Amino acid sequence: KDLIQANEELADENKNYFKNRGIRAIEFLGNIGSGKTSLIAKIIEKVKDKYNIAVINGDIAGDPTDIERLGVSTIQINTGGECHLDAKYIRPFVEKLPSETNLCFIENVGNLICPFEFPLGCEHRVVVVGLTDGPFIIRKHPVTFRIATVAVINKLDLQEFLDNDPKKLVEDCKSINPKAAVVLTSAKTGKGIEELIKVLNL
Amino acid sequence: KDLIQANEELADENKNYFKNRGIRAIEFLGNIGSGKTSLIAKIIEKVKDKYNIAVINGDIAGDPTDIERLGVSTIQINTGGECHLDAKYIRPFVEKLPSETNLCFIENVGNLICPFEFPLGCEHRVVVVGLTDGPFIIRKHPVTFRIATVAVINKLDLQEFLDNDPKKLVEDCKSINPKAAVVLTSAKTGKGIEELIKVLNL
Ligand SMILES: Nc1nc2c(ncn2[C@@H]2O[C@H](COP(=O)(O)OP(=O)(O)OP(=O)(O)O)[C@@H](O)[C@H]2O)c(=O)[nH]1
Ligand SMILES: Nc1nc2c(ncn2[C@@H]2O[C@H](COP(=O)(O)OP(=O)(O)OP(=O)(O)O)[C@@H](O)[C@H]2O)c(=O)[nH]1
Ligand SMILES: [Mg+2]
Ligand SMILES: [Mg+2]
Ligand SMILES: [Zn+2]
Ligand SMILES: [Zn+2]
Fold first, then answer.
1. Which residues in chain A have Cβ-Cβ distances shorter than 8 Å to B129?
2. Is residue A63 a contact partner of residue B163, using CB atoms and an 8 Å limit?
3. Where are the alpha helices (DSSP H) in B48-126?
């Protein structure tokens, strides 16, 4: 538990660092393949004229991300095996962000469990799951959804082929964490992206 | 690293325990919602007349699993927050298995990362991912696929709606771990279940 405490202090330090540099930092976390990268790309398409954007992407091994094609500064962190980013680990990368950066997306390692305990110092923690993950995905991970400022249920375009009611997932989230905004999206069709941008105040 | 070593020793003890009790133990691991429970259920439907089956299911919080409906002895472990099962943790549950048990499926916590490092003492480690997780899912998790005896790519029934070629995923797996059997399945339609049963020698 000292690790948790130590991380909280370093996360606060990061928070101050972002503030002093005028960088708005938004963390995306969620299970593997839920669509974190795709959603960040969709958001960037819509707001890149408003901000100087950078992306820090954490993975165990290389992520051939397509965010670079959007002309946005990207830093890829390969942890080698560490199952979550933490405040200390990202600090040197954060310090390397281009000086004009004023909006930074940090995509955590694909993992719906471990990252919840290690905040990074961002103003938002956006938890992303896919409708493809089944009807109990939120109910089975209360500790993760409790730390979310925004919860996103992605891949709505596949709804008709799945036995999974998005409304029930929204209810599950609201009962675990009434304060989190819940957004239904499809990174494929663009559905819900405007709403996601709105709840993130971008 | 002492934790890893200690777990390996306890995993070997579990292996001997299973052997002495005449129980074949098969571990299912893989990311959240990939279909581990559904695949175990499909296998059980086909082989339950051949074996006395028990299921141990690990989750962070309750899994309303439908395996009990199959009339199979099930033990649900809720870890509360631990992101992977380990050999020590499952031992008391394994000792509680009904005496006539000769086949035990152990479903690890939904997590494609942490469980790889903590074998439980089973004869098979079946790693399950969904076609819905995107084309890089295997390439991004080499350490996990390296410990697989069988790799399963599930949810093939959704192939036409996804930009993801199962053949490429099979190649990714074979290049990381040539010794693992790779099976394409749909727990929904039943596709590949016979083949999965065959590679598991059931
Ligand atoms: N379309 C489709 N859906 C599937 C398939 N297999 C499982 N599902 C669905 O995917 C969701 C998750 O399935 P589960 O079997 O609970 O997955 P799991 O890996 O056990 O999930 P966790 O234990 O929570 O990690 C459920 O809604 C299933 O109905 C499949 O082959 N095709
Ligand atoms: N059908 C559908 N597919 C999607 C959607 N969003 C993402 N995908 C697909 O899902 C796969 C994974 O998407 P990513 O954006 O890489 O997901 P991720 O959460 O960043 O994955 P990791 O970083 O590996 O944890 C890709 O093949 C995407 O094309 C969606 O809304 N609908
Ligand atoms: Mg990603
Ligand atoms: Mg399950
Ligand atoms: Zn972890
Ligand atoms: Zn872990």
1. 32-33
2. no
3. 87-95
Q: Tell me the C-alpha distance between A175 and A168, whole Å.
A: 11
What type of residue sits at position B92?
Answer: P
Domain ranges of chain A: 2-199
CB contact under 8 A, A109 and B109: no
By alpha-carbon position, which residue is closest to atom 7 of ligand 1? B35
Among A79, A124, A88, smallest CA distance to A6 is for A88
CB < 8 Å to A113, chain B: 60, 83, 109, 111, 114
Biggest CA–CA distance in chain B, Å, is 48
Which residue of chain B is at minimal alpha-carbon distance from A62? B140
Contact A130, A34 (CB under 8 A): yes
Beta-bridge partner residues of A184: A153
Sequence-ordered list of residues with C-beta below 8 angstroms from that of B92, at least 6 positions apart, any chain: none
* Bridge partners (DSSP) listed for residue B182: B151
Tens digits of residue pLDDT in A161-194? 999 999 999 999 999 999 999 999 999 999 999 9
Give me the CATH code for the B2-199 domain, please. 3.40.50.300
Query: How far is the centre of ligand 6, averaged over its atoms, from the C-alpha of A131 (Å)?
Result: 24
User: Is the CB–ligand 1 distance for residue B130 below 6 Å?
Assistant: no
Nearest CA in chain A to B109: A113
pLDDT, tens only, A115-161: 999 999 999 999 999 999 999 999 999 999 999 999 999 999 999 99
